[in-house]
Amino acid sequence: MSVTVPEHDLELHRRELTGYCYRMLGSAFEADDAVQETMLRAWRGSDGFEGRSSLRSWLYRIATNVCLDMLRGEKRRALPMDLGPSSPPVEAHLRPWPAEDNWVTPIATESVLPEHGDPAEIAALRDSVRLAFVTALQHLPARQRASLILCEVLRLPAAEAAAILESSVASVNSALQRARATLATLPSEQRPRAVDEVNADLLSRYVDAFQRYDMTALLDLIHEDAVMTMPPFEMWLRGLRDIATWMVLPGPSKCADSRLVPVQANGVTAWGQYRPAPDGGYEAWGLHVHEFTGGKISRYTIFLDVDRLFPRFGLPARLP
Questions:
Q1: Among the listed residues 229, 241, 300, the one whose alpha carbon sits nearest the alpha carbon of residue 271
Q2: CA separation for the pair 212, 226 (Å, rounded)
Q3: CA gap 224, 89 in Å, rounded
Q4: Confidence band (pLDDT; 50, 70, 90) for 156?
């Protein structure tokens, strides 16, 4: 017997489906497309929903098939440290990667995390959308990726995950073992690590130091073995010494007197950076998404694709 599903009931699951598709695809833009296609397929096929599984599981099955279709034959998304060794801090090494759509992109936290719920569950979900974790997931084959997200992020029983993947429990458990083994063997700069719950004082110190471009104060907030990336440039830096050298070069030093506007991205506080414009005011320059470990920045990521990213975070192109 079929059960007609109201469109409102489908929409209640949009946020968590967006989080699932984002982890699968590594792109906020593709996640939106995947969820839209999931909703369209669900709406068109709602008369065929027989209610033998939960509506949530049924939607996850559709979303999984959409993501697997999108990933078929596609090159995996990455961040610069996934593509080659670190570079010396020299501006001549700034080369944009030819296809910007190869990068993992940040996503607005409000698009993927629930507003209310158990604090411990929300904290776990927040960790699972951090840039480092989402980027690490892209190293996994698609079905292993789905198995890991369903079982270890969403905490679904293996039997339910198997039904979503239209597979067997044994296959899901095997995929989980292989996925864990792959993540455990990633190089240190590609592997997600435990991060701090950042306090307001630390964030305030970072904003103050960056806006004044006070190198002493700023570098005091960066971890000795931090990694710095600036997509779409393929160059990336490893270690405080190289980051310090880079920041005082003529190009990067133009960030002096910038303004930072706070937003929420990937479960952390991020900032839209605006550099002084030649004709007055400030122009959009980059989206800072950092992770802190031991009270200091361990991953320093600045996304420069502001034309596409800033509108997603409600950020204007200029400040007066």
A1: 300
A2: 21
A3: 16
A4: very high
Please tell me the predicted confidence (pLDDT) of residue 1: 42
Q: At what angle do helices 28-44 and 55-71 cross, to 10 degrees?
A: 130
* C-alpha angle 176-177-180 in degrees, rounded to nearest 5: 85
- Residue 302 has φ and ψ, to the nearest 5°, of -125, 115
Taking the model in full, what pTM does it have?
Answer: 0.93
Does the pLDDT value for residue 115 go beyond 50? yes
Residue 318 three-state SS: strand
Q: 262 with 247: CB under 8 angstroms?
A: no
Q: What one-letter code names the amino acid at 167?
A: S
Structure tokens, 105: 């992109």
Per-residue tokens: 50? 């027989």
What one-letter code names the amino acid at 300? Answer: Y
Residue 194 contacts residue 291 (beta carbons within 8 Å): no
Instruction: Tell me the average pLDDT across 80-86.
Output: 89
Enter the tokens of residue 198: 């950042």
Break the chain into its structural domains and give their ranges: 78-139+186-320
Structure tokens at 175: 């995929």
Q: Answer positive or negative: Cα dihedral of 292, 297, 300, 301.
A: positive
The DSSP letter of residue 249 is S
Interatomic CA distance for residues 34 and 109, integer angstroms: 18
CATH of region 78-139+186-320, choose from 3.30.70.1530, 3.40.50.300, 3.10.450.50, 3.90.226.10: 3.10.450.50
